[in-house]
């Protein structure tokens, strides 16, 4: 299965600022997925990123708040914009891995103060 | 509305105990059910189940799916402190579409 490098691993940010999270995959993949896991909650899909086209956002998530780039088949970024304490979560990128379901990046733990 | 419910929410056991984690689901379209182990941030894959009644095993872990009663169980025998984690259940609804449960937090005491 694919190996995904995600960074930063963690960050503490001031409210009103933005953070960009990067994911690098060791193989070419068509789709990449961005998830959020708020404290004590389940994983929630933010958006699906397809190379060469705009990301598709799930209900409750908008591009202005979570802009995504997908410049090639091995890389994607998610930006959390104009952050508030409610954005404090673990953010995960992932790719589909056939019989293994998803392979996830190592995750970014974001705390907004 | 599609939903996946895991129970118990949390569990504390001693090393050597056997635990059973539950995942029930109500979904409009079922393709597969997956179990993941989440120790820190990144979930790691344990099992994918698509057929009822066929047990999947990996060492001390095993899992089975009941598509009639709409649930799955994950068993861990002879638990070790390294089994302490959140165990997530997810149901695949369609292409690139999964719904996750909130997880069971397992703590194994030495």
Search tags:
heterodimer, A: 113 residues, mainly beta, 7-stranded mixed sheet, 4-stranded antiparallel sheet, 52% strand, B: 110 residues, 6-stranded mixed sheet, 5-stranded antiparallel sheet, 11 strands, 0% helix, globular
Task: Reconstruct the topology from this structure.
The complex is a heterodimer of chains A (about 110) and B (about 110).
Chain A: E1 4-7, E2 10-13, E3 19-25, E4 31-37, E5 43-50, E6 56-57, E7 68-72, E8 75-80, E9 89-96, E10 102-104, E11 108-112
Chain B: E1 3-7, E2 10-14, E3 19-26, E4 32-38, E5 43-49, E6 56-58, E7 61-66, E8 71-76, E9 85-94, E10 97-100, E11 104-109
Parallel strand pairs in B: 2-11
Antiparallel strand pairs in B: 1-3, 3-8, 4-5, 4-9, 6-7, 7-8, 9-10, 9-11
Short characterization:
Chain A is mostly beta strands and 113 residues long. In chain A, 0% of the residues lie in helices and 52% in strands. In chain A, strand 5 and strand 6 form a beta hairpin.
How would you describe this protein?
The complex is a heterodimer of chains A (113) and B (110). Chain A has 113 residues and is an all-beta fold. Chain A has no helices and eleven strands. In chain A, strand 5 and strand 6 form a beta hairpin. Chain B is built from no helices and eleven strands. Chains A and B meet through strand 5, strand 9 and strand 10 of A and strand 4, strand 5 and strand 9 of B.
Please tell me the overall pLDDT of chain B: 95
Classification by helices and strands of chain B: mainly beta
Measured by DSSP, the beta-strand proportion of chain B falls in over 45%
In DSSP terms (H or I, runs of 4 or more residues), the helix count of chain A works out at 0
Helix and strand string of chain B, N-terminal first?
EEEEEEEEEEE
Order of helices and strands of chain A: EEEEEEEEEEE
Q: Tell the overall outline of chain B.
A: globular
